[in-house]
Design goal:
Blueprint: H1 2-13, H2 16-109, H3 114-121, H4 125-155
Helix pairs in contact: 2-3, 2-4, 3-4
Length: 156
């Protein structure tokens, strides 16, 4: 009770300029305290953000190096695929061509006409006529060989 009475007596004895001065000092002290607290929190958050940034930067480097490695591996696989395809395509074309030529020769041996052979085998007229000539030549050479063998066996 004595303390409150003392404070009241002190305040009544002061003039308004002294009260404003004390209020300003208290407000300044409060502002400085709040500023220091905010600076401390800002530094703490800045350090925390730096740690997060370094972690993200490291993760980005890891992902980047992994994607570069995968890119190199993908390029190697594409090269291997390209070389395999370049080797495979001529082989497939040769086997398809050989199959059509063999089929055409078989058709000629069975007596099918050149135009029908060209249509069924997908060959040009020049190719079918060449195959026909080869077949005729083979047939003539087989016939000659048979007649020579026949003459030799008759002579013996």
């Amino acid at each position: 009770m004595k303390l409150t009475q003392y404070i009241i007596d002190l305040i009544t004895a002061m003039n308004w300029l002294d009260i404003v001065l004390i209020g300003s000092a208290l407000t300044s002290w409060l502002a400085i305290s709040l500023t220091l607290f905010c600076m401390h929190r800002t530094r703490y958050q800045f350090r925390l953000l730096q740690k997060l940034y370094r972690g993200l930067e490291h993760e980005l480097q890891v992902v980047n190096s992994a994607s570069m490695g995968m890119g190199r591996r993908l390029i190697d696989v594409e090269r291997k695929l390209s070389s395999t395809l370049s080797l495979q395509l001529p082989t497939e074309k040769q086997s398809v061509d050989q199959l059509s030529y063999s089929h055409a020769a078989q058709l000629f041996r069975s007596g099918v006409q050149a135009e029908e052979v060209a249509r069924s085998c997908g060959l040009s007229r020049a190719e079918t006529s060449l195959i026909a000539m080869i077949q005729q030549s083979k047939n003539q050479s087989v016939a000659k060989n048979q007649s020579v063998v026949k003459n030799q066996s008759v002579a013996a």
